[in-house]
Amino acid sequence: MKFVAIVGTNSERSTNRKLLQFMQQHFASKATIEILEIKDLPAFDEPETDEIPESILRFSKKIEAADAVIIATPEYDHTIPAVLKSVLEWLSFSTRPLIDKPVMIVGCSLGALGTSRAQAHLRQILDAPELKARVMPGNEFFLGHSAQVFDENNELTNQAKLTELEECFLEFCDFVPLVEKLVKKNPEKTLARKKFSWELANKGGKN
């Protein structure tokens, strides 16, 4: 399987990036994971025309081509970073590549609580009509005190959290083909979701 993993921050020293790099190597026998950065993408500003920035289109195409998506988010003020929300707004405004795409959410925090609030908020966002990702239910992985749990080789040294991550990832690998099978049963529904319009919805129209 081919996954893309989104670093949900523009921080150069984020442990969320370290976590995805670790997952890329540790799970190489299970899936090919390409890490996508968002730090150089433009902030969302609804264009007056339908013209979408090339960098956003390239980013979107990588998601479209993948079997599934992993998103690693830190927690800022009980929610996700503005830069990640901006990217999601671009994706919902443009080609909507996350619709019916399997998504796994992970997160790192320097504090003790991990990213539970941010992950819960991200799940809400990904359920918006223009995103409608298939987020794996009952599966959460957050890593607290993340500055202390990676060694100089970027290996995750907390054995309990490593076991938890392995269990979550293997469940996600089982979840991906189930979603694919479900979506293939009704491809028209996915197409309809990609054409969703709030204007038509507010008028009671069909999409």
TrEMBL record:
One of its GO terms (molecular function) is oxidoreductase activity. It comes from the Bacteria. SUPFAM superfamilies: Flavoproteins. Pfam families: FMN_red (PF03358). One of its GO terms (cellular component) is cytosol. Residues 1-147 form the NADPH-dependent FMN reductase-like domain. This is NADPH-dependent FMN reductase.
